[in-house]
Design goal:
alpha+beta; 40% helix; 8 helices; 4 strands
Length: 151
């Protein structure tokens, strides 16, 4: 099983869309194995967005992600990274596929509701940055055999 990291960003929290995001990922068949609702410190934001240091949007991104609460989550399933990113839609909401979260609820890239890991390496880094191993729950659902092939 693959794990991936998701943030329901401040705009998703402020607009009351955290439940919608969770529902869509659960209905997709993914399993929630960790979640935290928190205010992001500048230090944590800088570590998370270190790849963007020096880019024109960096400071605005840091101000935005630390401006209000976020919901961080770890999801598990076969090809979880690709499944989550497809469910979220393209980074630019006007380019996102109909039915995706960003298409259905977003208009601008600066308020695109979510962050999702883009590779196994990024997912491992982000999960380790935001969660301890003790905060992740390994559990079985009775429905897994009907969702995951090969169970």
């Amino acid at each position: 099983m693959e794990r991936t990291f998701v943030i329901a960003k401040p705009d998703a929290v402020q607009r009351g869309l955290v439940g919608e995001i969770i529902v869509r990922l659960e209905r997709r068949g993914l399993k929630l194995v960790g979640a935290k609702f928190l205010l992001v410190s500048r230090e944590l934001a800088e570590k998370h967005y270190a790849v963007h240091v020096g880019k024109p949007f960096y400071e605005g991104l840091i101000r935005y992600i630390t401006s209000a609460p976020v919901m961080t989550m770890v999801w598990e399933g076969p090809q979880a990274i690709a499944a989550v990113r497809q469910t979220m839609g393209a980074t630019r909401p006007v380019e996102a596929a109909p039915g995706s979260i960003r298409h259905d609820f977003g208009l601008s890239v600066g308020r695109n509701l979510t962050h999702a890991s883009d590779s196994p390496e990024t997912a491992a880094f982000e999960i380790g940055l935001w969660f301890t191993e003790a905060e992740l729950v390994n559990w079985q659902r009775p429905t897994d055999a009907w969702i995951f092939e090969g169970n």
